Amino acid sequence: MRIALIFCAWLLCSAAVAVPNEPATLDRSTWPEQLNSPALFDVASRAEILTFAHALLASEALDDNALKQRLNLKVINIDEIDSLRRKLWLRLLANYNFAQQSCDQDASFCYYVDDMDSLREQAGKFEVADDSFYAAWAEPAREFHRRYLDEQLRMAALFPQISSEIGLFGDHEFNGDEMNDRLFMLTFDSGPTQSPGNTDWLTDYLRKQSISATFFVLGNSLQARLDKSSEAAVKALYQGQCVGVQGWEYRSHSHWQDWQASILRSLALVKQGVPQNYVPLFRPPYGQRRADSAGFFESQGVKVALWDIDSQDMAGGMTAEQSAQRVLSLMLLWRHGVIAFHDTQDKVRSALPWLLKATAQSGLGWADCAKPL
Fold it and tell me: Which of 52, 184, 285, 368 is least surrounded, with the fewest CB atoms within 10 Å of its CB?
């Protein structure tokens, strides 16, 4: 019976899913100003919010068939799409209200917005003139936000049959939505690498920057690292950082019969190997987990840690700089949240320093990984 159910689920997904487009990225060199003050961060933030809101409003004019064609899907969950749109509008309104608090310092992209109706009105008529100081940014930004919106709508269209970071299954999960304005959480998946490797470089770099992050480790990778070194070496590796789990192997935990064993085995290894760094968090590979798993996670005192800013650093066609630029664009749009990188990817050695340099004077904060959100 279990095999039959899994096979039916596979058939449903296969019928619904076609190949997604390449992840969206935006060349930040088209933006004419450095983000070297909180006010200039807000200027860029207002511009990204209005551009995304314009794309979101335009998408609402599409009927179901047009939306299927645009998302390259045969079947869509329109209720989830509508639910996502409502959530996006609420967050855009809150974010624009934060971003316009510095309009007395720089009025660029400051428009009358005090409620949802006025935000939708401004989004509908938003455009950047051809002779504007920001003209070179406008068209690339429109394309970026249309493609990024499609990424979000596509995940919603498939949810919950294919689970992802787009939606929560309960209070035992979080994705960064409730964080304070200008506060971001750095996370890294799929490590550790073997020594010497990206994980070694990254943890050392973060310590030098006085920043902490959460590393979601794979049990088999951590075990391999312990086997080739020692517990003392692994403790030194993660000094000042936090360690959660991603399961024993990088595999979807939504239809895996042994998903609970995968998590429990990894939790036990982390608690034994790096007890001072352990945080009770599980990061599901691909964002995929079971909708009925709340009881299990609550019994273990573990939360499901999703994300709302995806670097897409595992995408084959994405360069390190494009990944960093994508993250920065989404930081400007969402103004707070959980950023997902992979310490198994060489790109992180260039992407993270670029990102920290670009935001160093923007008035942002990096969350302490050891403090509950």
Answer: 368
